[in-house]
């Protein structure tokens, strides 16, 4: 049995990973999470008490981080400020958590000589043209666009430097856009699902031609566990499931699956600096570590996600009105 420290485990992807670890290993999991607006303890309900510990705290606070890292065998670092739109209006928390927080964790894993896995995003590579036949690979140069993605890029580079300069035993993964249960209603897919469920028309930024490469959060979790167990120290692995869709098609599919007319949405003000297209080539992870995604039917995965939001209104309802009001105030 390993002691796994999961930072950001009360957030969307972190909580999915915690459930996945509990179901697929005999590990003990400790979650360190600051419970910002994006953290929700309800996402961790029902976990077995003898295998799960929750600690409320800030990853940028060395006095909290140090003893937790010392007591762990593996650290998997999900905690972040994660929303591009927020980073355009108030970048400071992105610097504090994504850069200083990652630095604080790296110093602790260096001191205590612990295995570390760093969760990152495909957004560090910037964006692609719609008709570019190439996809992002581990060799693509970094070219981030937003305050969010630049702080994630900076955090990845800190990890690379700590591996090379101090011999830290780390791996990095850069994943494409996730969907699934427990995603905050500020994000694209849950915003549109819960808009429909509350009688509000979905909101598409600009023309809606931007493309995202969707992967189910469970497939992200299985990829991360594969890298933690079989990944080569110092290596980066791209995680993706060949799920490219333009935003307009996703909104139309949500409307179809909820029995609405497929044109019942609004175009709203576009995001500043809006990345056009992300696309991941995950050949390295598949061929070198033998990983395969399980959720390859996007429509079925989206339908199951809609069912989850229908069945779990108590989970998202408290955040919905304030999140939507903030968007409306921004013309979005
Ligand atoms: P999220 O915003 O849903 O969750 C982030 C969690 O981190 C929250 O529980 C929050 O309380 C916690 N947190 C924030 N600041 C903290 C701090 N200073 N100390 C401790 N905890 C703190 O984010 P998410 O969408 O689950 O993303 C998780 C990770 O995955 C991030 O590193 C993100 O960059 C990466 N990622 C996300 C996606 C995606 O599609 N959402 C894709 C690729 C990579
Ligand atoms: O209401 C909306 N309407 C809309 O058209 C919202 C909230 C978004 N969009 C568009 C913007 C993007 O093109 O949908 C797309 C997806 O938007 P987000 O859910 O905000 O995701 P994105 O900006 O692509 O970033 C996500 O994937 C990569 C995560 O939030 C990041 O944490 C991750 O790194």
Question: Can you characterise this structure?
Answer:
With 332 residues, the protein is an alpha/beta fold. It has a domain at 3-179 and 215-239: Rossmann fold (3-Layer(aba) Sandwich). The chain is 43% helix and 16% strand. The chain has eleven helices and 13 strands. It has helices at residues 12-24, 62-70, 84-89, 92-112, 147-166, 188-197, 217-230, 247-257, 283-289, 298-311, 313-329, and strands spanning 3-7, 28-33, 52-56, 74-77, 115-121, 170-175, 178-179, 203-205, 211-213, 215-216, 236-239, 244-246, 266-268. The strands form four sheets. Strands 3-2-1-4-5-6-11 form a seven-stranded parallel beta sheet, sandwiched between helices. β1, α1 and β2 form a beta-alpha-beta unit. The longest helix has 21 residues, at 92-112. It is globular. Bound molecules: nicotinamide-adenine-dinucleotide and thymidine-5'-diphospho-beta-D-xylose (TDX). Thymidine-5'-diphospho-beta-D-xylose (TDX) is lined by residues 82-84, 121, 123, 177, 187-188, 191, 203-205, 210, 212, 247, 271.
